[in-house]
Specification:
- This protein has 21 helices and 18 strands.
- By secondary structure, it is an alpha/beta fold.
- It folds into 3 domains: about 170 residues, Ribosomal Protein S5, domain 2; about 210 residues, P-loop containing nucleotide triphosphate hydrolases (Rossmann fold), CATH 3.40.50.300; about 70 residues, Helicase, Ruva Protein, domain 3 (Orthogonal Bundle), CATH 1.10.8.
- The strands form 6 sheets. A 5-stranded parallel sheet has the order 11-14-17-10-18. The chain has a 4-stranded mixed sheet with strand order 1-2-4-3. Strands 5-8-9 form a 3-stranded parallel sheet.
- Strand 12 and strand 13 form a beta hairpin.
- The protein is elongated.
- The protein starts with a strand and ends with a helix.
- The relative contact order is 0.10.
- The structure holds adenosine-5'-diphosphate (ADP) and magnesium ion (MG).
- Adenosine-5'-diphosphate binds next to helix 8.
- The site of magnesium ion has 4 residues, from helix 8.
Length: about 500
């Protein structure tokens, strides 16, 4: 007899419909034949399913059973079809009688005992089930809780094959989970705080502006000036994510399996700091099981690249397009997938290979050619996309010996949150939530400057030989500085500060 169960396949961060067709009672040896582009993990299902069936008190098939995962051209990845396959076998062998099997979208891995195990991508599956107009989903523990964040679809948590079968057969009640509304909680910054940072007033200010408007930031300074220290503390001042942002962040981390492994609780904006030896695939996404890379895991949060020139040139070049677009397209054997990656870039670098150029207390031993080669690793077009460049000078003795703590993270975060709230109101009804993401039209609308300021900006652009791209970016940063000051209009001091963050384009790089 033939039975069909509805399940899904994860494609990037979206799920697509998969039918698990089970045909039992064919002549031949008692074994499972699995067809329909399964990967190795799916192929191992038969052992788990046989064992789970018998350990749950059901009869394993005594004849040849064919399982087809349709459509055949869609790659099926990961051990997510154990539960649908086992339920399909029960239905095909009449151990489960239910006439509304296809009202449910079902996924889950099975242990040998018949207990369910969570799967990647539950959020995407819930969205798919809602689109398909299904009655609900049957999912294992944590996956069910994750899916319950999606409104408008019932999610039933099934802890074992036996309970799933009895629920479908109408033998037990399993009330749907209440809708989980996750709100951004206090940020987890490992207990570090900005008050530990001495001096570096200009750097602090640049960080405040960058985080407030979601602008990219590059810190340049000698070793030991506190660049890495500052970056680690940025998590403690990030503004709260909106509910929609939270859902998008979680969808990505759910698809990467990071929510079920407990690495990500999804209540804060992500802060990702890949090492400079990171592979292009790990950075951008892709791989044999195509999943989100670091840039997507940093979506709506921060990607911190410490020692920027140490990264492979190829890795830095491929960052350019995603930085601009906020999404990345990954090619794979079965077509392309597009993943969101609207991150804020924070980068740090030394001014030269030895690090001491411009440091009064250390002699720089680099030759002009070495310095030039080092800086040339950061290409002009990449630099163009970094809105704020800030020098972090070596700490002075006075700063080092000072015992007065710097300003703490809490008031800093408070100001940033206020500026971001202003932005949320400005962009209400649009898809963007920060100044950095303004389109050209939005810049014209929200960053108007009078002709005096226009002349000033033009003069600065000529003096610093800035690109046309830098023009828009300076206006966006001016907008954020005005927001921090609570000013409706961009004023001269706001514009001047924003221009000053571009001055390194020329003094350091050309
Ligand atoms: N501004 C600062 N305030 C307090 N301590 C600092 C500061 N800058 C550097 N330090 C000390 O020096 C160490 C190295 O700083 P780090 O952030 O790694 O420098 P960088 O990344 O610029 O090379 C820190 O762990 C801290 O102990
Ligand atoms: Mg460092």
């Amino acid at each position: 007899m033939l039975a069909t169960i509805t399940s899904a396949a994860l494609q990037g961060i979206d799920a697509e419909l998969v039918h698990v067709e089970v045909n039992a009672g064919e002549a031949g040896e008692p074994k499972l034949i699995l067809v329909g582009l399964p990967d190795a993990a799916v192929k191992e299902s038969d052992d788990r399913v046989f064992s789970a069936l018998s350990n749950s008190g059901f009869k394993a098939p005594r004849t040849r059973t064919t399982i087809n995962l349709a459509p055949g051209n869609l790659r099926k990845e990961g051990p997510i079809y154990d539960l649908p396959i086992a339920l399909g076998i029960l239905a095909a062998t009449r151990q489960l009688i239910a006439d509304d099997l296809n009202d449910w979208l079902i996924a889950g891995e099975l242990s040998l005992s018949g207990a369910t195990r969570p799967v990647r991508g539950a959020l995407a599956m819930a969205r798919l089930a809602r689109t398909l107009g299904k009655r609900g989903l049957l999912l294992p523990g944590i996956s069910a809780e994750e899916a319950a964040m999606v409104e408008g679809i019932a999610v039933h948590r099934v802890d074992s094959l036996d309970r799933a079968k009895r629920f479908l057969a109408g033998e037990i009640e399993l009330p749907p989970l209440p809708l989980t509304r996750r709100v951004a909680g206090p940020v987890n910054s490992d207990g570090v705080d900005f008050d530990e940072i001495k001096g570096q007033h200009a750097l602090r200010r640049a960080v405040e502006v960058a985080v407030a408007g979601n602008h990219n930031l590059l810190m340049i300074g000698p070793p030991g000036s506190g660049k890495s220290m500052v970056a680690k503390r940025i998590a403690s001042i990030m503004p709260a994510a909106t509910p929609e942002e939270t859902l998008e962040i979680l969808s990505i981390h759910s698809a990467a399996g990071r929510t079920i492994s407990g690495e990500m609780n999804g209540e804060t904006r992500p802060f990702r700091a890949p090492h400079h030896t990171v592979s292009d695939v790990a950075l951008l996404g892709g791989g044999s099981i195509p999943g989100p890379g670091e840039i997507s895991l940093a979506h709506h949060g921060i990607l911190f690249l410490d020692e920027l020139p140490e990264f492979k040139r190829s890795a830095l070049e491929v960052l350019r397009q995603p930085l601009e677009d906020g999404h990345v397209t990954i090619s794979r054997s079965a077509g392309k997938i597009t993943l969101p990656c609207a991150f804020m870039l924070v980068a740090a670098m030394n001014p030269c290979p030895c690090g001491y150029l411009g440091d009064a207390r250390h002699e720089c031993r680099c030759s002009p050619t070495q310095i030039q080669r080092y800086r040339a690793r950061i290409s002009g077009p990449l630099l163009d996309r970094i809105d704020l460049h800030i020098e972090a000078p070596a700490l002075t003795m006075t700063d080092l010996r000072s015992t007065t703590p710097g300003e703490a993270s809490a008031p800093l975060r408070h100001r940033i949150q206020a500026a971001r709230t202003w932005q949320l109101q400005r962009f209400a009804g649009t898809r963007i939530t920060s100044n950095a993401r303004m389109t050209h039209a939005q810049i014209r609308r929200h960053c108007g400057i009078d002709s005096t300021l226009g002349d000033l900006l033009q003069h600065a652009m000529e003096q610093l030989s800035l690109s046309a791209r830098a023009y828009d970016r300076i206006l966006k940063v001016s907008r954020t500085i005005a927001d921090l000051a609570g000013s409706e209009r961009i004023q001269q001091s706001h514009l001047l500060e924003a221009i000053q963050y571009r001055s390194l384009d020329r003094t350091v790089f050309y």
